Amino acid sequence: MIPELGQFSLILALCLCVILGTLPLIGASRNNLLWMNLARPVTAGVFVFLAISIAILAYAFVQDDFSVQFVQQHSNLLLPTRYKVTAVWGGHEGSFLLWTFMLSGWMLAVSIYSKSMPIDFVARVLGVLGIICFAYILFMLATSNPFDRVVPLSPADGADLNSALQDIGFIIHPPTLYMGYVGFSVVFAFAMAALLSGRLDAAWARWCRPWANTAWAVLTLGIALGSWWAYYELGWGGWWAWDPVENPPLITWLFGTAMIHSLAATEKRGVFKSWTVLLAILAFAGSLLGTFITRSGLLTSVHAFASDPTRGVFILLIFGLAIGFALLLFALRAPLMKSDFGFSLLSREIFLLANNVILVVASASVLLGTLFPMVYQAITDELISIGPPYFNAIFAPLMVLLILLLGVGPICRWKKTSAQYLVMQLGRVALSSVALGVLLPLVVLLKFSVSATIASILASWICLAMLTDLVNKSANKITRLQGLKSLSLSYFGMQIAHFGVAVMLIGAAMTSNFSSEKSVLLASGESIDLGEYVFLFDGMTSVEGPNYIGDEAHIQVLRDGEFVRNLNPQRRLYVASGSPSTEMAIDAGFFRDLFITLGEAKEGGAWSMTIYIKPFIRWVWLGAIFMALGGLTAAGDKRYRRLRRRQEELLAEDLKANLQPAL
Amino acid sequence: MSKLKFFIPAIGFFVLALLLWRGLYLNTRDLPSVLIDKPLPEFEMKTVIGSQLVTNKDLPDKMFLLNVWGSYCLPCLVEHPTLMRLTEEGEMPVVGVNYRDRKNLAIDWLGVNGNPFSFSLLDEDGKLGIDLGVYGAPETFLIDQNGVIRYRHVSVLDETVWQEVFQPAITALRAEQAGI
Questions:
Q1: Closest listed residue to residue A470, CA positions, set A419, A462, A343, A435
Q2: Strand runs (DSSP E) across A306-449, as ranges?
Q3: HSE value, Cβ hemisphere, 13 Å, CA-based, for A320
Q4: Per the domain annotation, does B2 fall within a domain?
Q5: Is B21 within a domain?
Q6: Does residue A640 register a pLDDT over 80?
């Protein structure tokens, strides 16, 4: 009975979405205040019913209600309760419910934090989101209902959650990633509302920016979490594998990054308007494409959910209609939007434009690499594979170029900057970053590699250019502190995020150039050297978890003869599914990770294992955290709130004047 | 013209959507029809151990498995005992394709974990993998005595997969050949 209630509230949410996707939009175009005002309460209703729905699914998991097919497939009596709850997103149906629920959460946030926007605009934004939400719920009810029952006999026990998913990373990675992903629907809705109303001005950009920055920051975190989780749980050993399912979030992220930059120019200078809108549409398209790729069985990968062509057709239909309509509307409306083109060849606008071009090219190349095997197969019926060498070869040079420009852009002035000024500001920076970049890896790691040197030059370039800019911008007040205080939060947000790029760059370069690994066979009491560490194997013990049994190795790590810590990698056998899994042991550190995976038992009690030393790998994620922090800081800039309030007063008068006869 | 350029994204998108739609009906999980029931691609490559030059002629003249592996590949460790058992018990020979790996790491790996392969082809640049349409390690192909690809399995080949997927396929193949 209870699961049916879940399904019923899903249907109610669908009905509310029908209202939300029609009346407020019609109301906005006909100036019907009543219909426009429906948007907010109906949004709250959609949120509430989706919340009930997902809570009931979680309840079914906790109660071990195996008569629900989705629960039966992804849970088990022995599964610890926290994983029972998170098993909600352990498969296609439930994760799609989470996805939709996240969307309604964003919608609710828009309806609450939009008091300052004109009601016709809010009605359009929520209306567009309502249509998207409608399509998602319909998709769920039609092809992937999480509440489907197993009839007539319900099984006594479930099949178990995939063992790779029984992990803390799985608890936090999908919700964060989805939240970021779905956040771009909000930006998309803002863009659509702008196209529909023909209103695309600085005020629009100001409304849009905090949402865009927040969505971007959350997506950054989500991707970083995914990378971290893949690193320690899936044991790919690396932090990015160019997997076909890792790529769509990256594509979305690159479009999104381009968009938040172009949005800044739109707000400050009224330029690149249609371009910003196009990027908002593309970022959203990236997020839908990601959904499509993972859920249609189009590409085979670790992440792929069970494939089903009808689902694929349905998602493709959503994708085609939403993006097709958006791009057509764009084609019709964008020519009407006049951008100002008052900037010279050397100005911050140009650098932002270059940033956009590079990011879009990068994004398009990742898209090409991801889809090319499929496209090639569609045309020639032959199969090819495209791997990391392609992506690295294209991505690395683009990023080098991007970072070179990143140093200059923030120092540049809007409209026009003299070349002399730039040389004066950056000449010393360039020289000292080359010096620093060459010296640092040699001094810190006592090793040399060309690409690591290039990376540390670039990282110094970012940091030193940033310092120069901070010094300049804080110089016009009596004290430095006052000067710093006079700078806006969004300025600090930018600098923090750019600093994150430098940190991530160092991490990526050091770990890919200076990692070492060794496969060894150790018997109890034997030891092995790797780098400056000695790994001493103390023997094995059996372990027993709530739903698995396994063996655990005890390895002492020594450095210069001194004990560092114990590492205990495991091999597990999950009882319910019979699936084996390996749990690596990691000693995480600021400057290096030690990482051991356990192989198999051999004759004479010896075990095979692989030992890795990965310098600076934490910096990759640390960099992402800085980026996200920067995005959130910028979103919190009080100028958005202040200006909104002023806007609100003006618009309230406007509305009174214009909308009276509508009722 | 200046207005028409705004249609470029829409047109580009529709082309993409069409291709995706076409892509839905391609079976990427199994080998494409062109390769299944086709002979193994011609190769002339070095082996991982001993660096001998081998060609298609050196393949077993009975039914065998072609297993794509790499020392970097953890799932390969999971299926490793099954492959060891198959060769040790003489149930089926296994030929390895050491896919996009480094030779010294591959040799270490075989030394440490044991070598289930009759020989492993050193496919450092992934050329053979591309000819085979490999997604990544591990992947296993069932090749019949005439060197024809009969079945492909993406991901881990453990005992369950062996019993539930490979053995029925092999039985079916043997029955088919006995019938001819």
A1: A462
A2: none
A3: 14
A4: no
A5: no
A6: no
Based on the structure, what is the number of domains in chain B?
Answer: 1
Give the whole-angstrom CA distance, residue B55 versus residue B75.
28
Q: How far is CA A46 from CA A53, A133, A230, in A?
A: 11, 9, 34
Interface predicted TM-score (ipTM)? 0.70
Does the beta-carbon distance from B100 to A580 stay under 8 Å? no
C-alpha torsion B82→B84→B89→B94, nearest 10: 90
Residue A337 near chain B (CB below 8 Å): no
Q: Measure A374 CA to nearest chain B CA, in Å.
A: 6
**Cross-chain CB nearest to A382 (options B34, B77, B109):** B34
Which token pair is A534?
Answer: 């000695």
Question: Which residue of B lies nearest to A286 if distances are taken between CA atoms?
Answer: B13
Asked whether the predicted pLDDT for residue A661 surpasses 50, the reply is: no
- Residue A80 is predicted with a pLDDT of 86
Residue A223's pLDDT is what?
Answer: 92
Please name the residues in contact with A401: beta carbons below 8 A apart, sequence gap of 6 or more.
A358
Half-sphere exposure of A139 (CA within 13 A, CB side): 29
Q: Which domain holds residue B132?
A: 35-179
**Nearest CB to B77 within list A274, A298, A582:** A582
Q: Chain B within 8 Å of A601 (Cβ-Cβ)?
A: no
> Average pLDDT of A306-313?
66
Distance CA A269, CA A499 (A): 25
What pLDDT does residue A61 have?
Answer: 92
Q: Is the dihedral of CA A59, A64, A65, A71 positive or negative?
A: positive
Determine, yes or no, domain membership for B50: yes
B40-67 pLDDT, tens digit per residue, is 888 888 898 888 888 888 888 889 999 9
Looking at the DSSP bridge assignments, the partners of residue A574 are: A548
What are the chain B neighbours of A375 within 8 Å (beta carbons)?
A: 19, 23
Phi, psi of A42 (to 5 degrees): -65, -40
The percentage of residues in chain B with a pLDDT greater than 70, rounded to a whole number, is 90
**Structure token pair of residue B119:** 């020989």
CA distance B84 to B73: 16
Beta strands across the sheet bearing A585-587:
A516-522, A607-615, A592-601, A585-587
Q: Using an 8 Å CB-CB cutoff, list chain A residues near B154.
A: 300
Per-residue pLDDT of A191-200, as tens digits, reads 999 999 888 8
